[in-house]
Design brief:
single chain, about 325 residues, two-stranded antiparallel ribbon, 15 helices, 2 strands
């Protein structure tokens, strides 16, 4: 019985309140509940901001079988943030056999591509991109009998078609060739990407390839199409179509400044040798992609459109 005149005890605002606040933070950051290694790794990564500690706990999660797929992917991402690029590559290569799902393997490939790009390992990046193209061709990159799949873009869930994914991978492959300064290979791949799904940004990059080869007239024609809006649609406007047009206009100004001094360069013996080498490369890729489809002996429609590669594609 409460006696009059005695003050009532105030509600506790100590440990329970702090625990509730911590739980709210975990929910907001989507940190798993519990005290397992993976949950502790995510806590150190997202709450404490102690990335090295989170890496150690991700390792522990992998060793103990606690959400291995997510632990390996998250650990590699954190390693990239810390600059441990080679270690992240080695971790994925040595531990990816523990991740059995196709989606997990695809996610690991995408992380590897980012790591290769960040560390300048262009040759390995190109090989992995070719591997992704072969998977698309053989019907292994999309769910059975479906022409679209779910993916993430800028944090949003979207549906991607075979054509869109093929064009995206081809664009990345062409850009990797540009980093090697193999502009003839980059040109050929950009042209194939444009056949699958044309867009203005790839058109500008194609023009850059042509400019690097001294084919300023061809580049000017491609850029004129960009400025005229030949590639403009809803998605182009959404992804900064105005910036691409300005980029095309700047490249046109460069071309006009250069052509005022002497026009296009003539192809020499070195260029002819590169053309022969590129033709051999295209033949090799054609043989890879023209092989019968493993399951049904049919090619996906998109590959019917872009194969076989012809030597005439390289003609000026």
């Amino acid at each position: 019985m409460v006696q009059a005149g005695l003050a009532q005890p105030a509600p506790s605002t100590g440990a329970p309140a702090m625990a509730a606040a911590a739980a709210a933070v975990h929910v907001a950051l989507k940190i798993p509940s519990g005290g397992g290694p993976y949950a502790r790794a995510k806590h150190y990564q997202l709450v404490e901001k102690d990335l090295d500690a989170s890496i150690a706990w991700f390792w522990k999660a992998i060793e103990t079988g606690d959400k291995v797929d997510s632990a390996l992917k998250d650990m590699a991402v954190v390693m990239k943030q810390r600059g441990y690029l080679d270690d992240a590559v080695d971790a994925i290569r040595s531990l990816r056999h523990l991740c059995l799902g196709k989606q997990s393997q695809e996610s690991l490939d995408n992380i590897l591509l980012d790591l290769y790009k960040a560390s300048g390992r262009t040759k390995e990046e190109i090989e992995l991109l070719k591997h992704k193209l072969r998977r698309i061709y053989h019907g292994q990159a999309f769910p059975a009998d479906k022409a679209t799949k779910r993916a993430r873009s800028h944090g949003r869930k979207i549906h991607v078609s075979v054509q869109q994914e093929t064009s995206r991978v081809l664009g990345n492959l062409a850009w990797a060739y540009m980093q090697q300064r193999n502009f003839m290979a980059a040109e050929a791949v950009y042209r194939k990407a444009q056949m699958v799904e044309p867009d203005a940004n790839k058109a500008c990059n194609l023009a850059l390839c042509l400019m690097e080869q001294g084919r300023l007239g061809d580049a000017e024609g491609v850029l004129a199409d960009v400025v005229a809006g030949a590639f403009r649609d809803g998605r182009e406007r959404e992804h900064g179509g105005g910036k691409v047009v300005r980029k095309a206009e700047e490249l046109l100004e460069r071309i006009r400044a250069e052509t005022g001094g002497g026009g296009e360069k003539e192809a020499g013996e070195e260029d002819g040798a590169e053309a022969d080498e590129m033709a051999e490369l295209l033949d090799m890729v054609a043989r890879q992609w023209a092989a019968p489809y493993r399951k049904s002996h049919r090619r996906l429609p998109v590959f019917e459109e872009i194969t076989p590669f012809g030597r005439e594609q390289m003609a000026c």
